[in-house]
TrEMBL record, chain A:
Keywords, sorted A to Z: Cell membrane, Membrane, Transmembrane, Transmembrane helix, Transport
UniProt protein name: ABC transporter permease
Record's keyword annotation contains Acyltransferase: no
Localization per Swiss-Prot or TrEMBL: Cell membrane
Domain ABC transmembrane type-1, first and last residues per copy: 60-266
Family of the protein in this entry: Belongs to the binding-protein-dependent transport system permease family. CysTW subfamily.
Membrane spanning stretches: 12-35, 55-83, 95-118, 146-166, 201-223, 243-270
Membrane topology category: Multi-pass membrane protein
Alphabetical list of Pfam families matching this protein: BPD_transp_1
Primary location group: membrane
TrEMBL record, chain B:
Entries under InterPro entries matching the protein: SBP, TAT_signal
Keywords: Signal
Pfam families for the chain: SBP_bac_8
SUPFAM superfamilies, per the entry: Periplasmic binding protein-like II
Name used for this protein in its record: Extracellular solute-binding protein
Domain of life where this protein originates: Bacteria
Length: 280, 377
């Protein structure tokens, strides 16, 4: 029997996962690419229509805006949570981690519906504020971009916290102590010693949240009131309502390319290899 | 209209089965067994072939299926002894066509729409209605086609919540666009169907000239612009149940919704919090069509259509799910407390127009994109 080379061993190990990706992901995606240039007629007509349509342009704009704001919101809130868990909550860490992970046990659909119960005109938030005398008329907390953002930040928060937390827990506190010992203020020690060390975690959190948010569908559809039309909802609209498979496919190809571009641009500023591949 | 069944998927599987049958890869028995297994032909097994006098009526499922069975079908069986079965799998034009072309027709009578009825007639898929048997005067004017005849109707109506509006209720679409006097959120459908008409009337165009106005690019643009003006006050509904929820949760004070949903809301909302006006409503009729070579034969089906024209039964239909009687005689028999919710009462008919399928066939796709753009851009 010949010796199995290391190279061959690696391939055997990843083969099942790779096969699933190729059969159930790469192949259908190629099918979508094909539909986008063949229906209703061969050529790039769908792409021309897409670029010409101001509805599509607006929808892309909304998609990127919502994704960006969601990312910033998750980054700020998530950083604080991760920082606290990593540095202060030693005894409570398991509990706090459980609280971060808990939302994963409930489907996005249910979580979005819960926000409807909370944010509605006669929802829990508005009723409470009114009963406490803060407002006279209900605030418009949903069926607009605000509602979508609140719910999306909530849904995405664990995706921001987990990579940042993993990164922060690997940071030794001796550096900050040394800086403090050398006379740096607490703020200076954080800013010039701690923060730079957390950037890889921050960047992977940001990329994860942003890319996931770009393709979000359920939450905007439920809480946007039809006016926060993100691109994935627009794709559904084309395919289900108008049977316009060609245009719907072209839109999804455009979304895929836009997402790839984001990663490419990000790669110019940060070292993606170190963020996504190397972990301490 | 209110079902969670995935019709699209089922329809697709049926079409596949029909296709197979055509290619000779499924036997006739196998074909029927396949459809039976899918629940497409409930209670209809091999006996369907042995008993040609059974009538299979097809509609879109949900509660409407049970009501149709109870109100029209069971009463017909009582009167004639002929079994009538309702199949709720959704007789889309494509499905009827696939069935007729395959030569394996199992449906006798289908609940279609005016647009589909016209297309199917042009393609030679359906049979002419025998107006010697079916009385043309017993259906709403404009709903008797060569190969299709009205069976019930519903409308796009102006629904309001007087409590939220402080008792000051919009009476017309013009009022709906008047945000200063009638503050609050409005809901419109996530599609131009039945919506552009209201935006056109809001510009003061008289009822009779609505589709004429929408016949030009400028007319469409003007209607779209109305939505652009109002959009800060708009929440859209995608499904009938969504429109119902928006009213129930007091998210909206005003809306353009289906009369069948309004029929449910009047019972669900507390006294004095729900109102319906048919002023400027758009009537959408359901149309019976008979596929070519239907198993029960044309004559049997015509007799069943005549049975369905019975005004008393149509009133029952209205009471149960809000489907408006297509027979003008029925209006007088509607209980007074229900009359305001009847889309086909003489008072309500006078203030509405008939949905124009031809317009949609020509303009819908381009108008939809403008509509989305107006709402989001």
């Amino acid at each position: 029997m010949t010796q199995i080379t290391d190279n061959f061993r690696y391939w055997i190990l990843i083969m099942p996962a790779l096969a699933i990706m190729i059969i159930f992901y790469i192949y259908p995606v190629l099918g979508i690419w094909q539909i986008s240039v063949t229906e209703p007629e061969a050529g790039f007509g769908n792409y021309v229509r897409m670029v010409d349509s101001s509805a599509v342009r607006t929808s892309f704009l909304i998609t990127f805006r919502v994704a960006a704001i969601t990312t910033v919101g998750c980054l700020i809130l998530g950083y604080i949570v991760a920082y606290t868990i990593a540095n202060f909550a030693s005894r409570l860490t398991p509990l706090m981690l459980a609280l971060v992970l808990l939302p994963f046990w409930v489907s996005v659909l249910i979580r979005s519906f819960s926000w409807i119960v909370l944010l509605g005109r006669s929802g829990l938030v508005n009723d409470t504020l009114r009963d406490m005398g803060f407002i006279d008329a209900p605030l418009r907390l949903m069926h607009n971009e605000l509602g979508v953002l609140i719910a999306m930040i909530h849904v995405m928060l664990p995706f921001a916290i987990l990579p940042m937390l993993a990164n922060m827990r690997g940071i030794s506190d001796t550096y900050v102590k040394a800086a403090r010992g050398l006379g740096a203020s607490e703020w200076t020690a954080f800013r010039s010693v701690y923060l730079p060390q957390t950037l890889p975690g921050v960047m992977s959190g940001v990329l994860l949240v942003f890319v996931l948010a770009l393709g979000f569908y359920i939450t905007p559809a439920l809480l946007g009131g039809g006016r926060v039309l993100m691109i994935s909802e627009y794709i559904t609209y084309q395919i289900q309502e108008f049977l316009a498979w060609g245009l719907g496919s072209a839109l999804s190809v455009a979304l895929l390319i836009a997402t790839a571009l984001v990663l490419l641009i990000a790669a110019r500023f940060v070292n993606l290899r170190s963020i996504l591949l190397d972990r301490k | 209209m209110t079902d969670t069944t995935d019709f699209e998927a089922k329809q697709d599987i049926v079409e596949i089965a029909v296709e197979r049958y055509k290619q000779g890869r499924l036997t006739r028995r196998g074909f029927l067994a396949a459809l039976g297994a899918l629940g497409v032909l409930p209670m209809l097994g091999d006996t369907a072939m042995a008993q040609p006098t059974e009538i299979v009526v097809v509609n879109w499922g949900g509660q409407a299926k049970d009501v149709l069975q109870e109100v029209l079908c069971d009463t017909y069986t009582e009167a004639t002894g002929i079994p009538v079965v309702v199949d709720g799998s959704g007789p889309s034009a494509g499905k009827i066509r696939a069935m007729v072309e395959s030569g394996a027709v199992v449906w006798d009578l289908c609940d279609s729409g005016a647009g589909s009825a016209i297309i199917l007639e042009q393609q030679g898929i359906t049979q002419p209605i025998d107006y010697d048997v079916v009385d043309k005067s017993k259906v709403l004017e404009g709903t008797a086609y060569n190969n299709g005849v009205g069976n019930y109707l519903y409308s796009y109506v102006l629904a309001t919540n007087p409590k939220m509006l402080g008792g000051n209720v919009p009476q017309s679409w013009e009022d709906v666009w008047n945000v200063a006097d009638f503050p609050g959120m409005r809901t419109f459908r996530k599609s131009v169907r039945g919506m552009l008409e209201s935006a056109t009337m809001a510009q003061g165009v008289p009822l009779a000239e609505v589709y004429e106005a929408l016949g030009t690019e400028d007319g469409i643009q003007a209607a779209i612009d109305k939505f652009r003006q109002l959009r800060e006050n708009i929440i859209v509904w995608g499904s009938g149940s969504e429109s119902q929820n928006l009213f129930l949760q007091e998210e909206v004070a005003i809306g353009n919704i289906w009369s069948t949903r309004a029929h449910l809301l009047k019972d669900q909302m507390p006294q004095g919090t729900f109102n319906v006006s048919f002023n400027g409503g758009v009537i959408a009729p359901g149309i019976w069509v008979v596929p070519k070579d239907n198993p029960a034969g044309k004559d049997e089906v015509m007799k069943f259509i005549v049975h369905g024209q019975n005004p008393e039964l149509q009133v029952k239909w209205l009471e149960m799910i809000g489907a408006g009687p297509i027979n003008p005689e029925a209006a007088a028999m509607v209980p007074p407390e229900l009359a305001p919710y009847n889309p086909s009462s003489p008072e309500n008919l006078a203030t509405q127009i008939l949905y124009k399928d031809e317009w949609y066939a020509k303009n819908q796709t381009s108008a939809e994109e403008l509509y989305v753009d107006a709402l989001i851009n």
